[in-house]
From TrEMBL:
Organism for this UniProt entry: Lupinus albus (White lupine)
Keywords: Hydrolase
Superkingdom per UniProt: Eukaryota
PANTHER family recorded: ACYLAMINOACYL-PEPTIDASE (PTHR42776:SF23), SERINE PEPTIDASE S9 FAMILY MEMBER (PTHR42776)
Stretches assigned to the Acylamino-acid-releasing enzyme N-terminal domain: 5-316
Family that this chain belongs to: Belongs to the peptidase S9C family.
Pfam families: APEH_N
SUPFAM superfamilies: DPP6 N-terminal domain-like
Protein name (Swiss-Prot/TrEMBL): Putative acylaminoacyl-peptidase
InterPro entries per record: AARE_N (IPR045550)
One MF term in the entry's GO annotations: serine-type endopeptidase activity
Amino acid sequence: MDMHKEVSLQVDTTTEHDYAHLSNLLQEFTSIPDIDKAWHFKSESSATLDLQGMFSITQPDLLGNKKRKLIMSCNILKESGSSAKFLWAPFPVEMSGVSMVVPSPSGSKLLIIRNPENEEAPSSFEIWSSSQIEKEFHIPQLVHGSVYNDGWFEGVSWNLDETFIAYVAEEPSPEKPTFDHMGYKKGSSADKDCGCWKGQGDWEDDWGETYAGKRQPSLFVININRGEVHAVKGIDKSLSVGQVVWAPFTEGLEQYLVFVGWSSGTRKLGIKYCSNRPCAIYAVRAPHHELEFHSTEDLLALNLTHTISSAYFPRFR
């Protein structure tokens, strides 16, 4: 007597209906793009157009298990009363491999940042005009690591005359000790040198969560005319910085950068999902004026909000 029972591997009709219904819902939800950032500029090319808009949007890529980054532009016309009419471009443009997109204040230039894919590759900064790429800079890991684009430490800011860009990136990796068959070896050597190996160096705490393995966020300024990058001096090493903006410029006075600083204390223990961490807004002189400093005190960042426990997202109108 055959004791084996035939087991049906087919999905029942009700379950199939649920699968189809839920998959349709998922497709409908993921077809709706998210607007991450938006900018508007005064139109100087036409007397009839009032404003031009630019939007950074993302949309899930289910098959690739990632997000697509796209740019959409529009013209904005003022109509009677307080209403406005949006004239959208026919299609968005996908920005493949792009970490950040930041237009200049006038809208005449566009900064595109591509973070390195490994610990040896440089960061790429591209400056685009309306029809072509004007300049491209590759920032080696010896200067800094990846630019922060997390929405929290993240900060990229053009100055008013669009010659300098301030941004937040991982500080450069400290030099690791090198050893060979004779023991410790003075000086640096390539990681792939035959007969040598490198230690890990001193252990450093990170902010955990989505920041595991990322180095401390630090402040840098690039001169887009010369391609020179300078780390901003005067910021205490205990501060993790973010959300940098240029302070309004006054003719004849020094330019300042305003940023948020989080003091790590003894342990960092997360920040993205613990947004109530104590922080303060600081101001520091921009590094391209450092030759004009007359004392060490001129370099030090100034705490602008020392009377309150938490302050972030500085903005000027």
